[in-house]
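user: Please review this fold.
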Amino acid sequence: MKQIKRPEFEDCLDLINQEIIKRKSKWNLSSIAWMDFDDVSQIIRVHIYQKWNQYNPEKPLKPWVSTIISHQIKNLIRNNYTNYARPCLRCDAAIGDDGCKIYKEQCDACPLYAHWRKNKQPATFVKLPLSIENHSHEVHEMRDTSPYSDHNEQKLHVLMKKILKPIEYQVYRGLYIEHKEESEVAKSLGFISNEKGRTPGYRQLKNIQKSIVAKADETNAPAPAVSSAPPKKISGVELYAIHCNRCHPERYPVEFNEQQWKTLMLHMRVRANLPAAQAREIMKYLQEEAGN
C-alpha cells in the first residue's frame, strides 16, 4: 500500500491559524500584562511545528491540531497562573477578596494558604507583574485619555461656545466653568421669581439648562446602526471544538464508527448539557468523518 506523504507545515499554516483563532475565547488570563493571545498563538505555532514529524498523514489534520492547541492553552494558563495563584481563589470557603468562612480571614491559620505563602507567593509576584501603563510616576509623559481629562474638558468648552446662544453660554460658563451657585447666575442675568420659596430665575435657568443638555447630547457621534444580518450558524466541527474538550482531550472522529459515535453522543449530550440542534450538528460532523 502506497504511503501517504506528510504535507509541509507551511502549506497547512492557514488551517492551523484558523483552528487557533477558534479557541481565542479559551485564553482568559488577562492578569498577565506581558502576554496576550498573539503571543499565545505564536507559542502554539512553534509547538505544532516542533511536533510536525509526529503527525500521521493518514488521519485528519484538524483534530490533531485542535488537540495540541487545547492542551497548550491549558498548559500555558497552568504554568503562568494556576500553579502560583492563591488557593483561596478556588476555595468554596472564600468570601470576597480576603475573607474566609472558616478562618474569618485568609491567613496562615489555613494550611493551604500557609503553604502557598511560604512556597509560591514569591513566584506569583514574579509571574504577575503590574502593568507599567498603570503607574504615572514611571511613565512621565503618559497622556490622559479619560473623557473627564482637562484636555477633553477644554475641547468641550470651546465646542459649546460655538453652538450655544449667548444667554445659554452665559449660564453654561457660570454653572459649569466658574461653578457658581444658581442664584448667583440668575442674579447676574437679572432673572427674578414671583414664586414664594423659589430661587430667583428658577424656571428660566431650568429651561436654559435643558436646552444646554440637549445641545450637548447632539454633539455626540450617532450610535452605530444595529446590523440586521442573521447570526452566523456554527458548524458541527466548531461546536465539537467548543464543547468536546471541556472535560477531556478531543478524540479523532476516525477513532470510532458511526454507530459507536451515536452511542457516545447519547452520553456526552447529557453530560455536556447540549441543546438538541447543536447535538445534531456535532453528530452529523462525527458521522461524516467517522472511521470504518
